[in-house]
Amino acid sequence: MIDDYARAMDLVKKIEDQLPIPVRLGSPVKRTLRDKGLTVSRDREFEIKRVFYFGDEGGIMCDVTPAQDAKEAVVVSLTHLLVAAHHPLAQEIRAYQRERTRRIAQSGGSGEPSSFVRRRKKKRR
To answer: Are 41 and 47 within 8 A, CB to CB?
Structure first.
């Protein structure tokens, strides 16, 4: 088990009570978005608009879609977001990020964001 479910849900509730929360994207997310053709400047600030719990597989996920008229949603793991140090939940969020990252590494996961792109399998001859 990666997350302590009760603690994760407690943090989800606290985040919901503070929405919107300004954040910056971590480097792996910026690379993933750039690979998809989206321009993301180094210092661009996003806002967590909604928060979800995707179970042990996904953890706490955050909707940081930049515009209301965006054609695609940007939903990112909380572990890949940078919260300002002065935010009231900063320490608790960082503690969750450290613990989840540590447990994913122990389980053999990469910790890199996945793009959920399905690729066609090559036919065998």
So the answer is: no
Query: 57: buried, middle or exposed (CB in 10 Å: 19+, 13-18, 0-12)?
Result: exposed
Q: What is the pLDDT of residues 32-75, one digit of tens each?
A: 888 887 778 878 899 999 999 998 888 999 999 887 667 778 89
Distances (CA, A) of 113 to 45, 61, 124: 19, 11, 30
Say how far apart CA 117 and CA 120 lie, in whole Å: 10
What is the four-CA torsion angle of 14, 2, 80, 66, rounded to 10 degrees?
Answer: -60
Is the whole model's pTM more than 0.70, yes or no?
yes
| Residue ranges of domains in the chain | 5-106
